[in-house]
Amino acid sequence: MLRGMTSPLLRALALAPRTQRPSLAVLRHVSDITSSEIARRREEAKKSYDATAGKPSAICDPYDNKGEPLSESQCAEMLLTVGDAWTLLEDNSALVREIEVTNFMRGAKLLTTLAAVSFNDGHFPTLTLERRKGKGRRWQEVVQVKLQTVVLEGLSYRDFQLAVLMDVELARPV
């Protein structure tokens, strides 16, 4: 073991089980880094790519429309590719679908299923489960799905793609 360990970090590492200890080469490398080097690396990390930092451009466009949201005509064209239950908001900023469920727990299960579809696609909508007063004195539980590409402040082709995937999942027998 190391003799004359004065650093609390080194003492803790010496007492840790062998499988949890980093190699001494790593320790030497970490100790060689100065505070100015740490500050420089932090600044570089802040400047690195952040998907929400700004709008995509024609050069970097993961949404296939030159960094712009879909136009009204493009949205109308794409709306034909999804199920009839999907509607566009008046300003074409989002694609919305409401699904009535029989009870709150089924709504929670549906929410989990739609969240898994979204996670697997890598595009994340706003999913809500709410209980509303329906007709008469009857309560109704509703799952609302709102698809929107926040970075573009509107819709992208990815939103319509996710709507199709959700339609496929909703069509599966329970």
How would you characterize the overall build of this protein?
By secondary structure, this protein is α+β, with helices and mostly antiparallel strands. It has 2 domains: 8-47, no CATH class; 72-171, 2-Layer Sandwich (Gyrase A, domain 2). The protein is 41% helix and 15% strand. The protein is built from 6 helices and 4 strands; from the N terminus they run H-H-H-H-E-E-H-E-E-H. The protein has a 4-stranded antiparallel β-sheet with strand order 1-2-4-3. It starts with 7 loop residues before the first helix and ends with a helix.
Features:
single chain, 174 residues, alpha+beta, Gyrase A, domain 2, 2 domains, four-stranded antiparallel beta sheet, 6 helices, 4 strands, 41% helix, extended
- Kindly report the spatial arrangement of strands forming the biggest sheet: 1-2-4-3
Provide mean pLDDT, rounded.
80
Quickly give the structural class.
alpha+beta
Give the biggest beta sheet.
4 strands, antiparallel
Terminus-to-terminus distance: 61 Å
CATH fold node name of the largest domain: Gyrase A, domain 2
Let me know the CATH homologous superfamily of the largest domain. Answer: Transcriptional coactivator/pterin dehydratase
Please state the second-level CATH architecture of the largest domain.
2-Layer Sandwich
Total helices: the number is: 6
- Approximate helicity band: 40-55%
N to C succession of SSEs: HHHHEEHEEH
Q: What is the percentage of strand-forming residues?
A: 5-15%
The count of β-strands is 4
Shape: extended
Total count of domains: 2
Query: Can you tell me the CATH class of the largest domain?
Result: Alpha Beta
User: For the CA atoms, what is the radius of gyration?
Assistant: 25 Å
